[in-house]
Every structure is written in C-alpha cells, then in structure tokens.
Amino acid sequence: MSRGLYNGTGWDWEIQDDMYNTRMDNIANAVDGTLWSVDGYSGVAGPAAYVEYLVAEPCAPCCELTVTHKRIRAEKLTKPRKVVLTVTGADETFDIFGLIDLGPLSWHKVKFNHRKNQLKIHAIVPAGLEPGMVMIRVGECFGWVEIE
Asked: Residue 27's pLDDT is what?
C-alpha cells in the first residue's frame, strides 16, 4: 500500500506496510486489483490531499500518466468547458488504445500518436466542478487533471 500526499503540484508517495483500511468513506476508483480510497478529513492541506492506494495480490502492473492541459479554474466553470488533455505514458506498459476513464469529465474525440506514445483527448469539464485533482485512467495507467 502507498500513501499519497498532494504537495500543491503533484503527489508524494510513501510506501506503507500492508494493513486493513477501515475508513473507506469515499472510493474514487476500483479496477483490476487496485482500490483508491480518498479520505475527506486530511486536515491542513484540504479534503482531497490524502489518498490511499491499495493493491491486491497479485499486483496488476500500473504506470503513471503525464497529463498536460490549459489551466482550468473552478470559478469559471459556470457552463461546461472544452479542454484538450495531452496524455503520455511513463513506460512501455502504457496502452494508448486502453479503456479511457476520465471520472467526472467526459470525452468526445481522441487522437492517437503511436510514434510519441501519446493521446490528445478532447474532453468536457462539467459546470460546477469543485477545485481539486481528478484522477483519470487509460488502461492500467493513471494520471491527474488539476481543477484550480
């Protein structure tokens, strides 16, 4: 198990000993032997700053995505906003043709660049989305979209 603390620009991960999670107040994602539990009572850094990532045995290989996009400001989300997410995998386990899950965001078009191992996802950010980090997945890989 790993514990992640959001430092304002990314996640700092710390390996934890195996343990039971008795505080599963909000499950963000559960796929192929992995479970993300977001605890809404982290204290100083805000409600989405403390994340537990639980992995069942045997561990399915996971990889991290690099996600870049134009700045998304929550106070400007009075109506749905189009945004292009440029998604790149960190290693060879990234499958650009994997199942796309953008959480509360939706997508309507995807461009594949096999040479760069990269996707350009044309997504819609819903109106009223609160500030924080939105986890996205492509296949077994995960990354983050920041709503400021």
From this structure: 46
What letter does residue 10 receive in the DSSP assignment?
S
Nearest CA among 116, 115, 120 for reference residue 138: 120
Residue 71 has pLDDT above 70, yes or no: yes
96-116 per-position pLDDT tens digit: 888 999 999 999 999 998 888
Counting every residue written for the chain, the total comes to 148
Q: 39: exposed, middle or buried (C-beta count within 10 Å: 0-12, 13-18, 19+)?
A: middle
| The domain made up of 63-147 is a member of CATH 1.10.3470 | no
Global confidence as pTM? 0.60
- Residue 74 backbone phi and psi in degrees, to 5: -60, -40
Cα separation, 102 vs 41, in Å, equals 24
For residues 68 and 49, is the Cβ–Cβ distance under 8 A? Answer: no
